[in-house]
Design a protein that fits this description.
Elements lengths: L7 E4 L3 E5 L19 H13 L4 E4 L4 H8 L6 E3 L4 E3 L9 E2 L5 H8 L7 E4 L3 E5 L7 H12 L6 E6 L2 E6 L4 H9 L8 E6 L5 H6 L6 E5 L8 E3 L2 H11 L4 E4 L1
Parallel strand pairs: 2-3, 2-11, 3-4, 11-12, 12-13
Antiparallel strand pairs: 1-14, 4-5, 5-6, 7-8, 8-10, 9-10
């Protein structure tokens, strides 16, 4: 994202920086466990967390426990599971909330879809089916999931992503998570900047309008966002730059 002459300068202390993780901050890997974070990115995020007064948060499909493992020893406010889990403060004693788990029977049937290149991630409140190692299974996997959830009495959603299908209860999204964050200090009253790359991020982009926020997509150009980064490496470079600045140039 390269600012032009019409860019608006905003004080770093007046914004909240909300970041998707996989495909936005970090490069996609064959499996979620193979993703790695650099020391340089960790330093940039730690610096931004201090300089914004704590208004930096991760908004991810990963669980809070997985995010803590991946970003350790850095601790940030986090939204996990596309809004299923929330921790609104970096305080070690800050409570977290978790959505209702999927039924045991539904989880059992979805877990049975693993194998032959399909990696299943069981989060309790959702199941993610990663097929990056078997992209040819995209359609047959989607059909199998649709058939499984068709008979559910509770509202269940199937979220497509980059070589992943996630199945979760309805009622929470990254948009609901963003609204929750923006209602609590130190995020309250600030202008949110959200960066995301996937279909699951579109609900957060839509919610930005309620807070005069600014959205940036990564990789593909998502309609309605304000700016665009070509790749996660560009996002990391921008975060490093603004972590030393007093003002941010926004479109």
């Amino acid at each position: 994202m390269v600012p032009d002459a019409s860019s608006l300068l905003v004080r770093l202390g007046d914004v909240a920086i909300l970041l998707d993780v996989d495909g936005t901050l970090l490069d996609i890997a064959p499996t979620p466990q193979e993703v790695r974070m650099s020391a340089a990115l960790q330093s940039s995020l730690a610096r931004l967390h201090v300089r914004t007064g704590g208004a930096v948060a991760l908004v991810s499909g990963r669980t809070l426990a997985d995010l803590d493992r991946l970003f350790a020893p850095l601790r940030l406010p986090m939204i996990g599971g596309h809004g299923a889990e929330t921790r609104l403060s970096a305080d070690p004693d800050a409570p977290s909330t978790v959505a209702t788990a999927l039924s045991d029977e539904l989880r059992r049937r979805l877990l049975a879809l693993s194998g032959a290149g399909v990696v299943v991630e069981d989060k309790g409140y959702s199941i993610a089916l990663h097929y990056r190692m078997a992209p040819e299974k995209s359609e047959i996997l989607a059909s199998a999931v649709s058939a499984i959830i068709a008979g559910e009495t509770r509202p269940i959603e199937m979220l497509p992503g980059k070589a992943v299908i996630e199945i979760k209860s309805s009622g929470f999204t990254k948009g609901t998570a963003l609204r929750q964050l923006m209602g609590h200090p130190p995020f309250m009253g600030r202008r949110p900047i959200f960066i995301g790359d996937d279909v699951t991020d579109e609900a957060a982009f839509a919610a930005l309008r309620e807070f005069s926020g600014t959205g940036f997509s990564v990789g593909r150009r998502i309609p309605g966002v304000h700016g665009h980064f070509g790749a996660p490496s560009d996002v990391r470079r921008w975060l490093e730059q603004i972590s030393h600045a007093e003002e941010i140039a926004l479109p």
